Amino acid sequence: MNKAVFLAAVLAFASCKKEGSEKTDQTNETYSEGESAKAKTPEELGKQIFEGTGNCFACHQPDQKVIGPSIKEIAKIYKDKNGNMVNFLKGNAEPIVDPSQFEVMKTNFAITQAMSDEELKAIETYIYTHLK
Q1: What percent of the chain has pLDDT over 90?
Q2: pTM for this one?
């Protein structure tokens, strides 16, 4: 692994850990009041959360694995296995994409569990757009 990729991975991992340690009450306000009001479609809302306050992009890139699997890989596996992404993000389902990274992802469940079903479905919708 070259130094730039390694550094990006370390920084992204640190960002994931930081986000996962925030208090749930703060997260509820951010998602429920902020993101839903700005988006016009579920795809737009999902993208706003994924790239913004959800900070999912720190670990998941469209076409390459950084810390977590790529967005395309997540979409393909969930589609092929008829998985329930929303249940996983709520912490109610086993990992089906990359179980070896599950411990890292669990640190972010405080963020995703604080999201509404609408917001989680929007993230799922956004992820599935990467199959196009």
Answers
A1: 64
A2: 0.71
